Amino acid sequence: MTDSPVTLITGGSSGIGAATARRLLAEGHRVTVTGRDSDRLARFAEETAAKPDTLLTIAADAADHEAVEAAVQATVRTFGRLDTVVANAGYATHDSLAEGDPAGWRDMVLTNVLGPALLIRSSLAALKESKGRIVLIGSVAGVVYTPGNIYGATKWAVTGLAENTRRMVTADGIGVTLVAPGRVETNFWEGAGGAPQGLNLTADQIADSIVWAVRQPAGVDVNTVVIRPVGQAV
Asked: How many folded domains does the chain comprise?
């Protein structure tokens, strides 16, 4: 068990993050999951029935530098290494530049953009040692333009962050993968009246792609994975 891979996932108590954590645990990985809601983290841990030596849950704000740094340090201290980080924490205010409430934008921008940057900064030393991988969860909204979409602008930032990070760390043997999902049936749509009509992906389907990227052999760097459900035109 001490040689099994170790992954840290932000925003991992629900949705895509939780599905990814469950997949990795089932494959024998050791996993740290962070999230803001300690009760939700506790429920997730209980539902997985994972052994204490395979799952670490930490209440932490992905946009808080000290909290992210502490989560990385706790992971390395508990499991002895760190092989992969998944910057999954993020959300949308589901409004626009023309009609939205600016009061909600700051926290979204900090979570969606600053959060991944802090995770990269805090985990670099450990990932250089393990020749590990950084996975950033972007969005189709970060590769296409949508009128007035501020959430999309944050995901465009994640798209740029992924490539800028890759160019910074590839010489150190670290891989960087951007996973950009289209419509996914998760709690992301809370406050927006539910997921769009039509075929949507599931969190488990996105988790499969994330785990596929994590499983790539040493020396292989899959950089961008864009996943849409059939029927999503843009």
From this structure: 1
